[in-house]
Design brief:
By secondary structure, this protein is of the alpha+beta class. It has a single domain, classed as Irregular (Factor Xa Inhibitor). It is built from three helices and three strands; from the N terminus they run αββαβα. It has a three-stranded antiparallel sheet with strand order 1-2-3. The chain is elongated.
Amino acid sequence: MGKIKTHKASSKRFTFTAGGKVKMNHMGRRHKLGLKTAKRKRILRKAGYVSETRMYDLKRLLPYN
């Protein structure tokens, strides 16, 4: 049986931690920053973690992590 291909767009966006969680950057921090409050931009700066609901999809997209 052949190898499963890794979804390259997902591999660039998500990283697996040692504890098994998936780390990601928040969206909405690229442009139109003048409209957003300082508090909102500060919160978006921190890394986020993928919910357990989406973990099944990511394990299919990133099989070798």
